[in-house]
């Protein structure tokens, strides 16, 4: 059984090149949770999914709280919303650096942080990757599966939501961004998580599978 680290926040001491002015608040929202977990939920950036105040992913914004609540209902998260306890779950962002309110990362800014994201993802080595939103899902499908070419240039997140897709050493389960959820979307991802937990999910020859 793997034992990566017992540290909850930024377990690998990443130091990305974030250049936010100190007077504007924290520089980054680092990965957080159970670094030995089998499930890794991946958000976009702090401006969308939260954590600028708390330093914890999926806190402080409506979208972030909605994602956290899904994993809370499925049994991964307990404790206070802003300081949660995560079991079998690690949370991080594709772009961890904080930007001024209203600013979105540029393509170059995503690229500048990709190596930090990739290093942490591979160190965690979860079985199940859960990218939230089109930007993150697109990156995860391109980088960690051979399936991106199956889909149109613009991903249909309504169709991909809660689907199980095989990757290179991972199973990928995309999550539609909460501000786009339609009736039944929340219940669908909770049901998928519960189904995976009840199954015998494992990695075999580098491909995440589940039986049952």
Automatic annotation (TrEMBL):
<dbReference type="GO" id="GO:0097506">
    <property type="term" value="F:deaminated base DNA N-glycosylase activity"/>
</dbReference>
<dbReference type="GO" id="GO:0046872">
    <property type="term" value="F:metal ion binding"/>
</dbReference>
<dbReference type="GO" id="GO:0051539">
    <property type="term" value="F:4 iron, 4 sulfur cluster binding"/>
</dbReference>
<keyword id="KW-0479">Metal-binding</keyword>
<protein>
    <submittedName>
        <fullName>Uracil-DNA glycosylase</fullName>
    </submittedName>
</protein>
<dbReference type="InterPro" id="IPR051536">
    <property type="entry name" value="UDG_Type-4/5"/>
</dbReference>
<keyword id="KW-0234">DNA repair</keyword>
<feature type="domain" description="Uracil-DNA glycosylase-like">
    <location>
        <begin position="30"/>
        <end position="178"/>
    </location>
</feature>
<dbReference type="GO" id="GO:0006281">
    <property type="term" value="P:DNA repair"/>
</dbReference>
<dbReference type="InterPro" id="IPR005122">
    <property type="entry name" value="Uracil-DNA_glycosylase-like"/>
</dbReference>
<dbReference type="Pfam" id="PF03167">
    <property type="entry name" value="UDG"/>
</dbReference>
<feature type="compositionally biased region" description="Polar residues">
    <location>
        <begin position="1"/>
        <end position="11"/>
    </location>
</feature>
<keyword id="KW-0004">4Fe-4S</keyword>
<keyword id="KW-0227">DNA damage</keyword>
<keyword id="KW-0378">Hydrolase</keyword>
<dbReference type="InterPro" id="IPR036895">
    <property type="entry name" value="Uracil-DNA_glycosylase-like_sf"/>
</dbReference>
<keyword id="KW-0411">Iron-sulfur</keyword>
<keyword id="KW-0408">Iron</keyword>
<feature type="region of interest" description="Disordered">
    <location>
        <begin position="1"/>
        <end position="23"/>
    </location>
</feature>
């Amino acid at each position: 059984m793997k034992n990566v680290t017992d540290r909850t926040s930024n377990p690998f001491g990443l130091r990305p090149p974030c250049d936010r002015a100190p007077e504007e608040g924290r520089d980054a929202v680092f990965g957080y949770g159970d670094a030995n977990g089998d499930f890794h939920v991946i958000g976009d950036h702090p401006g969308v999914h939260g954590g600028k105040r708390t330093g914890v992913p999926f806190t402080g914004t409506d979208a972030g709280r909605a994602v956290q609540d899904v994993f809370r209902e499925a049994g991964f998260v307990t404790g206070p919303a802003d300081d949660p306890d995560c079991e079998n779950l690690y949370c991080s962002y594709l772009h961890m650096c904080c930007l001024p309110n209203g600013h979105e990362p540029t393509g170059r800014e995503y690229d500048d942080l990709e190596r930090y994201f990739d290093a942490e993802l591979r160190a965690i080595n979860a079985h199940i990757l859960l990218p939230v939103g089109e930007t993150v899902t697109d990156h995860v499908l391109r980088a960690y599966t051979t399936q991106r070419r199956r889909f149109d240039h613009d991903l249909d997140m309504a169709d991909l939501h809660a689907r199980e897709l095989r990757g290179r050493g991972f199973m990928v389960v995309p999550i539609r961004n909460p501000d786009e959820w339609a009736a039944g979307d929340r219940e669908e991802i909770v049901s998928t998580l519960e189904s995976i937990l009840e199954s015998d999910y494992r990695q075999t020859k580098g491909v995440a599978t589940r039986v049952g």
